[in-house]
Amino acid sequence: SAVISQKPSRDICQRGTSLTIQCQVDSQVTMMFWYRQQPGQSLTLIATANQGSEATYESGFVIDKFPISRPNLTFSTLTVSNMSPEDSSIYLCSVAQGVGYTFGSGTRLTVV
Amino acid sequence: SQKIEQNSEALNIQEGKTATLTCNYTNYSPAYLQWYRQDPGRGPVFLLLIRENEKEKRKERLKVTFDTTLKQSLFHITASQPADSATYLCALGQGGADGLTFGKGTHLIIQP
What we know:
The structure holds two protein chains of two kinds. Chain A has a single domain (4-106), classed as Immunoglobulin-like. Helices cover 0% and strands 53% of the residues of chain A. Chain A is built from no helices and eleven strands. In chain A, strands 2, 4, 5, 6, 9, 10 and 11 form a seven-stranded mixed beta sheet that branches. A four-stranded antiparallel beta sheet of chain A has the order 1-3-8-7, with no helix packed on it. In chain A, strand 9 and strand 10 form a beta hairpin. Chain A is globular and about 40 Å long. The N and C termini of chain A lie far apart (37 Å). By secondary structure, chain B is mainly beta. Chain B has a single domain (3-111), classed as Immunoglobulin-like (Sandwich). Helices cover 0% and strands 56% of the residues of chain B. Chain B contains no helices and eleven strands. In chain B, strands 2, 4, 5, 9, 10 and 11 form a six-stranded mixed beta sheet that branches. In chain B, strands 1-3-8-7-6 form a five-stranded antiparallel beta sheet, with no helix packed on it. In chain B, strand 9 (86-93) and strand 10 (101-102) form a beta hairpin. At the A-B interface, strand 4, strand 5, strand 9 and strand 10 of A face strand 5 and strand 10 of B.
């Protein structure tokens, strides 16, 4: 199965700033998925990133707040923009693997 | 709206017993249901997938059942071990081009 390298693993950021999270996959994949896992909550899908086209965002998530890049079939970034304490969460990327999905280890973001 | 409920936030089981976790869903007709294991500070790890036309799947000490009439899946770990202690997530999906909808998870503790 694919191996995903996600970084940073954690960060503490000032409110009003932006953080870009990177995911590198060791094989080419068509779709990459970005999730948020807030404390005590389930993983929630933010958007689906397809190489060569605009990302598709789920209800409640917008491109201005969570811009996504997908420059090639092995790499994607998610930016959390103009952060507030409510953005404190774990962010994860994921790829489909035929049967099941593989996840990165997550980025634990704390906004102060 | 779609809703997934996992039976309890935490479940304590004696080592050697069978742990049974429940996943119920509403307002959803999934093509498949998946179970994941998540350890602290790590991304979810895929365990099992069961399709809508399947009743039961097994993998080593793991067994999953799927009742689309009851809209329920049961996840069993037989001969449980302390190393099985983790959070277990159920997730519903429609296809490889779509992301997953997750429950909040059940924190399973296997006591020696």
